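Treating backbone geometry as a discrete language has practical consequences that deserve illustration. Part of our work consisted of pairing the sequence of a single chain with a tokenised description of its backbone. What the numbers capture is local backbone geometry rather than side-chain detail. For completeness, the protein is quoted in full, as a sequence line and a line of structure tokens:
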Amino acid sequence: MRQGFVLAVLLLAGCAPGEPPVRPEDLRGPRLTRGIPRPAFVAQAPDGSPFDFRRETGGSLTFLFFGYTHCPDVCPLHMNNLALAIKGLPERIRSQVRVVFVSTDPERDTPGRLRNWLSNFDSTFVGLRGDTAALNAVQQRLGMPPASRDPAIGAEGYTVSHGAHLWAFTPDDSAHVVYPMGLNQEDFAADIPKLLRLWHRPR
């Protein structure tokens, strides 16, 4: 009877027998004081079709980032660290993770450019673009400043200021952790299995 009770507790905690329990305080990414619901918005997928973020990614561990392909530092660093972390995980874990990159510069980030740029990191990463005002509203609902265009010196013509953190929406369709700049691929690799075990899809 006691053995059955322990097994049930382990399963509820997202652990297989023999695996140590996972606690939210074990995560390397900063935890939010309250869960943020997975946002509902529709943007344009690389093939031109509408991509309903909540419907397409619901129930999965989804990393959401707002950035642009001409970004000189933050965007490629986040995507590279995340891609390397995912690549080093077992297939059973990799198959449960999605990455969605939403352009804050749709004028220059054509579908082809988004697809080619993201494929430098991982061909499964999804690039979306859409109406700037609508996507700025999504960022504001998440508590982020809206993206803004800034003059730049050089051939690029302008840069885009945008939020630098990466949202992790877990299978329960909420974000409990957000990843700012400064975390590396080892941090992501350590946290991804924990995120899947801590917050399950609601039944």
